[in-house]
Amino acid sequence: MKFIFFHLMPYAELPDDFPERHRSVWVDIDPSLYDPTKGRQMYLDYLDELEFAAAAGFDGVGVNEHHANGYGLMPSPNLMAATLARNTSDAAVVVLGDSLALYNPPLRVAEELAMLDVISGGRVVAGFPVGTAMDTCFAYGIDPATLRERYDEAHDLIVRAWTEPEPFTFNGRYTKLRSVNCWPRPIQRPHPPIWVPGGGSIETWQWCAETSYVYCYLSYYGYKLGRPQMRGFWEHVRSLGLDPNPYRTGFAQFVAVADTDAEARELYREPAEYFYKRCLHVHGGYAEPPGYKTEATVRAGVRSQVEMAARRGADQPKSGSKAALAGITFDDIVEKGYVILGSPTTVAEKLAEVAKDLNVGHMITFLHFGNMSKELCTYNTKLFAERVLPEVGSLFDDEWEDLWWPSGARTSSAPVRA
Amino acid sequence: MALGRSYLIGAGSGMTAAADLEVVEAGSGPTLGLLHGMLGTPASSALVAVLARTHRVIAPNLPGFGGSASREQRTFYDWVWTLSEVIDRVGLAGKPVVASSVGAMLAADLATIRPDVFERLVLLAPLGLWVDAVPVHDVWSERTPRQPAWLVDDVAALSPFFDDELSATADERTEAELRRYRTRRSAASIMWPIPERGLCDRIHRLRCPVHVVWGGRDRLAPAAVYGPLWQRLLPACTGLTVVEAAGHLLEWDAPQNTAATVLDSLGLPSESIH
After folding, report:
1. Phi-psi sector, B165: left (phi>0), alpha (psi -120 to 50), beta
2. Which ipTM was obtained for this model?
3. The model's pTM
């Protein structure tokens, strides 16, 4: 199993009364809340944490893209990946990822990821998310009804830019280029492995199964809620006659380790509550404008709501909704598995359970979350690397090969060197 | 009031924008076109029923609206092109047309490209012009249950759009919900990210007579700002009428008063509708 140390880079100084006084952490968050002096230190700390994780033995380090928010301060993940490519030596650099439809032209993604792949010596994972509605439709003004078509076309352009042997003309519906000639070309051939983060869209897992891209389910509500999506993916894999190689998938999981379960609860309570109550405080109107979801996904969701209403079971707030999160407690966060938290033994057992239940080979772990201090994050990372990784790092290795791992990155967790 | 009949003009009927498009038609008499606002034109439209007392009303639903199939529209001008073809296909070229909200936005832009496409226009709270100091409200950033209050003055007026038949099966209700989703998706697509496409630079070409009607309680695009703006910029504006106690989709809020205003602007006695 591979472990990626993933960082969201949140703004860690939102006021205590943020959920009560502000409508949303995303899109229309008050600009006056951002202090660039504090922001600078956050960036430096977060980059230190990523580099520490790489040196400590994580197989990869990960960054992503979001806009106009205090949840994650990386409008440009490639900027972060650039410094990581230079300051790490053999960990994978997982850009998960560039929101393809937001780049004009999308050729820019091909060029920058190629640069990163060359600088890093072939260690890049190219993550291609469709992007949240907040980022794509509201912050960047993309018509939700055309977002997926733009994404599909951008993907095609990028892959061709990496692989066509000659300069070519691209006649897309949204991008037209007379001469596409990507310099540099990535080290990895035919191109860096492509991973696709998805949040439940039916088309995403179908596409990943058919194209053999890694399907990454990114959600903060634990593996039990992730089961339907992961099982949908595996059913589609099976229907295509493909093998159930766990490295076809990635799964996001918050992790918090301490010497004992009790100590873990004490240490990580505040950052967990900060994340779930402030970082996820998103105005409901921004989440799913009409057209953002495909009709097939809406049909599946709508059908279940109609059925629930028919059974008079629709009164409970949807899990993860603002209404549900408003009442969330730390006990909920732990008991529902939103954060896998406890002693190294507890955490190792839980992670193994998650990996086997969902058949996931790439565990995208968040060992920093909320307003966690650098000191605590370093402690979490070191303890995880020393006491958890050795217990679970070899899961699946006897049976499956990771065919979706960057060729220039190390292929087994190195011992702690920090 | 009699219900309109609804039929489909199908793919393969010579239109580039071919898709199964629903057309609502009612009444007899001189032809009058109706282009919908954000929620399409249902066969049960009260405005259609009132106008149908004196006119043959033809109300096409553009792709994704009402019972029309969806068709991807890459840009705003795909929408305008589709409208152009639909106008010709259903026989509205050279006829008077009433257009609402997003339908009016498309009709106005089409009329700058084809100045003779309409005999005259009655625009109900048209979108397409923009005032920075008083932006058209971003209704699509509101949570879905709160959106109706931005569209009409009395949300009960939208019950024909939102309410499912009590006796409908779960499958029927699912399909009805999907129809509403497609309609909202299409309306959002025309407007996204803001409902302005440079009409202010072309509006001088909109030469046919235009009467502008606005709901006095329009929260989306305030009448006090946008009504006079349209009146000022249109080269052949015949007047601006404000229908009180009506929101943005005034044809849903106040079909009788809206119809009376339409008929008055067409030079027809509005007493005929009572």
Report:
1. beta
2. 0.91
3. 0.92
